[in-house]
Amino acid sequence: MAASRGPVGAVRRHPLVAFFVLAYAASWLAWLPYVLSGDGLGVLNFRFPKALGDSQIPGVLPGAYVGPLGAALVVSAITGGRDGLRRWRQRLFRMRVGGWYWYPIVLIGVPVLLVGGTMALPGAAESLRVPSLAVAAAYLPMLAVQVLTTGLAEEPGWRDFALPLIQRRHGAALGTLILGVVWAGWHLPLFFTSWSLAGKRPETAHWWITVGTFFLMAVAISYLITWVFNHTRESLPVALLLHASNNAVASLVLPELFADTHESWMLTAGVIGYGTVAVVLLIVTRGRLGYRGPRD
Questions:
Q1: pTM, to two decimals
Q2: Is 105 exposed, middle or buried (0-12, 13-18, 19+ CB in 10 A)?
Q3: Would you give the end-to-end CA distance of the chain in angstroms?
């Protein structure tokens, strides 16, 4: 009885809220040194060491892993015990997705949408160029890095744990909107660091525009991830691959494909490409995005 009235009971009664609170709290606390360091606001007189030429990996990844991944593990264990952990783990390793074609759809579709979205921007067509062979050679290693870092840190929480639960309570359309906004908001402290594409401080209009564009892009791609997730038997590997592919294309391919890539192009391209597909999917599926009710 005492456990049902204390923190454990609160987690059991409100697992989704508990997950969001834990994910935010753990990540933001872990990111605090990075935000205050010389790679962020400069309050503390030190910088994070560089890995692969950048301080983002040692600065961002610990908080990214301990947040969504840790929160999903804790809440799954409290609310479902061994059965809850088993269901969470099954989605995490569900490779059989009802059709092999989903993997090439994700791997080809993401670059097409991002390149297409970029081409819609003024001046992008004039700066288009043929990328070097080094880009093609580096793409798969970059994709693997994104899968093992950003993908595995975030998606076991946001999509493997939160998406099935939020769809059950709010439906696919509204649930994805809520999750997309919460997911985007989780990144906010990183906009005060060198992670931010803006490279500006909050007092600049460019910084605020970048944050707003990021929120729109995160919500737009969330609808695409939900659609893929629901059509692949709630397979996390495919959803994770979609997220990783977005990051790999945005960080490696677009800067090499377009000679005069502006800082905001990558996010705006995502809003255009993913947003267009999201609207089409919502209309065609009447907001269900392939959701047919709980699988467990």
A1: 0.91
A2: middle
A3: 27
